[in-house]
Amino acid sequence: QKEVEQDPGPLSVPEGAIVSLNCTYSNSAFQYFMWYRQYSRKGPELLMYTYSSGNKEDGRFTAQVDKSSKYISLFIRDSQPSDSATYLCAMTINNNDMRFGAGTRLTVKP
Amino acid sequence: GAGVSQSPRYKVAKRGQDVALRCDPISGHVSLFWYQQALGQGPEFLTYFQNEAQLDKSGLPSDRFFAERPEGSVSTLKIQRTQQEDSAVYLCASSLGAAGLTLSHYSGANVLTFGAGSRLTVL
User: Fold this and answer.
1) Of the partner residues A8, A46, A98, the one whose CB lies closest to the CB of residue B45
2) Which of A36, A97, B68, B94 has the fewest Cβ atoms nearer than 10 Å?
3) Is there a contact between A102 and B99 if contact means CB atoms under 8 Å apart?
């Protein structure tokens, strides 16, 4: 079993839909949780990070962490075609070595 | 520079050849990381430098992999006697601050900026 599990999709939604992406993990020592967006042939770019459990909102994006269930989510409201990318969850104990999920490929159709 | 620069962007090697991949981090960034991203997978940690010191190389898959950052800026990842399973995108990332967070001290200094990667294909 991988340390971080993420459904690779692909996920296809119409423009304006609410998108829900999620990951589960096994290592209870993880404290920092991130979501990265990766466009084709580009490096990952940080979207959001959260420390420990709780919610965090940034514009159309909301990140949720439930440490008791070892489950994290990213919600995208009013999705746009420009949101089409691969979304990677990542987590770390102390930023020395970050563990990534496999990534979920999202397509938002106009 | 404005971002993390990696070269070459694409490299094709015959099995058994040695390759060297270069990373130019953002100027002044203390921390530098190398990750390996296989097709359809997330990045996997290879090694971490704080300035010129290689503090963690636990992710290097074999002794054919070697990384250095001799002057604390540019880094090179070298793969000797390449094998087909080495085919992947090799990502470099840098951050302003030193790694090793405590409590909620995650800040802009800890954010990793990734390069576009070097895609290695071993035939």
Assistant:
1) A98
2) B68
3) no
